[in-house]
Amino acid sequence: MQMGKEAALSMSGRVRLLVADDKNDAADTLATILEMMGYAVRVAYGGLEAIAAADEFRPQAAILDVGMPELDGCQVAQELRRQSWGSGMLLIALTGWVHPDDRQRAMLAGFDHHFTKPVDCDALAAVLPREAADVVRGG
Fold first, then answer.
1. What is the mean pLDDT of the chain?
2. What pLDDT is stored for residue 5 in this prediction?
3. For residue 9, is pLDDT > 50?
4. Is the bond preceding 118 in cis, omega lying within 30 degrees of 0?
5. Residue 56: how many CA atoms within 13 Å on its side-chain side?
6. Which domains does the chain have, with CATH numbers?
7. Coil, helix or strand at residue 17
8. Residues 6+ apart with CB under 8 A from 77
9. Residues β-bridged to residue 133
């Protein structure tokens, strides 16, 4: 019996991350960087796709673009928080919006961290879990 990709990932012990951004190049570039850092990464290019991917992939953390169409990152964060499997997930907002009200809106939606684009990969890495057991919300 052949093992599915998700089963192989979970057995590898790598932390699973979801990256969602409607700018395909931005999402793919960030995913590549995170994969080089040792994470198992799934990419979604919109809000609805992000929710479906999270339901299937069950990541320990999600990095969500706030300004996506259909469902924005704040709406995705709220939906993930409503799920039993997503209530403790580490959620990171990634946005070009830098106004203090934007940060407050993201935090009220359930995000744990707020980063502006272009993201400082060292700062992002500092808040990401290195092991699945390392996920701690509220940072």
1. 87
2. 44
3. no
4. yes
5. 13
6. 16-128 (3.40.50.2300)
7. strand
8. 62, 64, 91, 93, 106, 109, 110, 111
9. none
* Residue 11, pLDDT score: 42
pLDDT of 42 over the 70 cut: yes
Alpha carbons 3 and 12: distance in angstroms, whole number: 12
> Which of 34, 43, 76, 61 lies closest to 134 in space, CA to CA?
61
Written as one string, the DSSP assignment of 63-97 is EEETT-SSS-HHHHHHHHHHSTTTTT-EEEEEES-
* Residues 6 or more apart in contact with residue 95 via CB below 8 angstroms: 65, 66, 67, 73, 102, 106, 114, 115, 116, 117
CA angle 82, 119, 71 (to 5 degrees): 35
Grouping H, G, I as helix, E, B as strand and the rest as coil, residue 120 is: coil
Dihedral sign (CA 115, 121, 122, 128): positive
Per-residue confidence at 114, pLDDT binned at 50, 70, 90? Answer: very high
Give the length of the chain. Answer: 139
Give the predicted TM-score (pTM) of the model: 0.86
pLDDT tens column, 62-101 = 999 999 988 999 999 999 999 999 999 999 999 987 777 8
